[in-house]
Amino acid sequence: MLKKDFKKIDLIKDLSLKTGYSQNYSKKIVDDLINIFIQNIKSGNLNLKNIGSFKLLNKKERIGRNPKTKEEFIITSRKSLSFTSSKKIIDNLNKII
Question: How many domains does one find in the chain?
Answer without folding.
Answer: 2
